[in-house]
């Protein structure tokens, strides 16, 4: 039986079930028979599946054993091939050196200077020696172009991958310059410093690291300084990456680097890209929907929107007038004694040199209501007493009123206003209040 049996009714409680059974006992009996047969068939299928799974597990274990054995055989074969390659390279170098040493040496005869004309000069006599062999092709004897040495590796985890790739490139492009195992190992060891060199120092004898070849040395460094969770860490940084106030191209370059580092599929990158862009780009997408949700087309559309937004912001900044600088002190020059200032048209009105009252940025001694010398004399800023400080002073705080009066007096004395100004006359006519408190004059 393959299909699951269905009960005649669906009672909600025990009494409803008893009533349904009493009404249709034959149907319920038939349902129980079918349910029991269905359960038996399911038990049989479960037992068969368990046997099949057991068989698959045994096959998997045997395959894993074979794979391990084949991997070990491949590693041994690879090591033998490397040793043979090294032997071939060493034999080639030795044969080339021996061939160069066996070549005959011909003494070069330099003719002496004579007073005869060139027509009377005779050729050098035949020496009877074997002439030197013709020079071979320059391409076979010339070494490859030397790549720049990679920067030294100090043991930083973030710098390990750079060092590994540059060493592999050096060994591949300049293999003829480093033909032996010793030369390759000493070269890699020479590019290590700090903690990285301290790691291989116990396995170094007479300056030569004791490894089979440079790949084993690089693997040794990667096991010590590598990041075992490199992919997961890159994915975590990719989910936290935000554009904020930087341009889209800078943000997208870092996004692509983390996506490749985290081995993310392109189909999963479009939602993450939308999540990390700025609020301005998200608002622009409401009125400019992308033509496609494909990752690269979506990124090109966002780049176009970001360019349009930044051009618009530049146009707005060019169209707006420059803002005046706050708290700008205008230098006012007074005419020299005995000379009258030149008059070229009506006098220009300049801004007063006095800062606003209670300006928190004005720290000059003239704006201090407590006077310029109370701090130096360690006096109370409020009353001027030397027996206590301002936190223990019992007199009321009238510094704000004093600062306002000081500002008014400085404004009256400002050279920006002429003596004939009506505002100045009105201030002169109004008597200034007596700045006293409890019979004591305030400073």
Automatic annotation (TrEMBL):
It comes from Emericellopsis cladophorae. Residues 328-339 have a biased composition (Basic residues). Coiled coil: none annotated. GO terms for molecular function: nucleic acid binding; zinc ion binding. InterPro entries: RTL1-rel, Znf_CCHC, Znf_CCHC_sf. Residues 380-395 form the CCHC-type domain. Residues 143-155, 373-400 have a biased composition (Basic and acidic residues). Transmembrane segments: none annotated. This is CCHC-type domain-containing protein. Residues 108-155, 310-443 are annotated as: Disordered. Keywords: Metal-binding, Zinc, Zinc-finger.
């Amino acid at each position: 039986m393959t299909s699951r049996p269905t009960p005649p009714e669906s009672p909600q409680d025990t009494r409803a079930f008893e009533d349904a059974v009493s009404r249709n006992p034959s149907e319920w009996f038939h349902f129980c028979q079918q349910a029991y047969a269905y359960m038996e068939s399911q038990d049989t299928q479960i037992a068969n599946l368990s046997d099949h799974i057991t068989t698959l597990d045994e096959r998997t274990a045997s395959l894993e054993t074979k794979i391990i054995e084949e991997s070990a055989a491949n590693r041994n074969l690879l090591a033998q091939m490397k040793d043979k390659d090294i032997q071939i390279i060493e034999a080639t170098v030795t044969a080339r050196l021996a061939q160069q040493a066996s070549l005959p040496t011909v003494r070069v005869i330099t003719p002496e200077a004579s007073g005869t004309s060139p027509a009377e000069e005779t050729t050098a006599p035949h020496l009877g020696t074997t002439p030197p062999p013709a020079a071979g092709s320059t391409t076979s004897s010339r070494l490859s172009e030397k790549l720049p040495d990679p920067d030294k590796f100090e043991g930083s985890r973030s710098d390990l991958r750079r060092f590994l790739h540059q060493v592999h490139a050096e060994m591949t492009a300049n293999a003829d310059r480093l033909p032996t195992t010793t030369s390759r190992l000493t070269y890699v060891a020479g590019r290590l410093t700090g903690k990285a060199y301290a790691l291989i120092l116990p396995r170094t004898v007479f300056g030569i690291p004791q490894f089979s070849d440079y790949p084993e040395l690089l693997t040794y460094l990667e096991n010590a300084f590598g990041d075992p969770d490199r992919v997961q860490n890159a994915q975590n940084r990719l989910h936290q990456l935000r554009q904020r106030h930087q341009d889209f191209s800078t943000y997208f370059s870092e996004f692509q680097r983390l996506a490749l580092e985290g081995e993310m599929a392109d189909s999963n990158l479009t939602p993450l890209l939308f999540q990390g862009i700025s609020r301005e780009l998200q608002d622009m997408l409401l009125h400019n929907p992308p033509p496609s949700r494909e990752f690269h087309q979506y990124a090109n559309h966002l780049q176009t929107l970001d360019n349009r937004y930044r051009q618009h912001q530049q146009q707005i900044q060019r169209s707006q007038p420059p803002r005046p600088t706050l708290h700008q002190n205008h230098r006012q020059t007074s005419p020299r004694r005995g000379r009258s200032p030149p008059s070229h048209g009506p006098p220009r009105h300049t801004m007063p040199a006095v800062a606003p009252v209670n300006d928190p940025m004005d720290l000059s001694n003239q704006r201090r209501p407590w006077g310029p010398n109370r701090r130096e004399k360690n006096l109370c800023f409020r009353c001027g007493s030397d027996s206590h400080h301002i936190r223990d002073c019992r007199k009321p705080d009238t510094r704000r009123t004093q600062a306002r009066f000081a500002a008014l007096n400085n404004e009256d004395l400002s050279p920006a206003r002429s003596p004939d100004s009506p505002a100045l006359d009105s201030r002169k006519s109004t008597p200034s209040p007596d700045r006293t408190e409890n019979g004591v004059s305030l400073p």
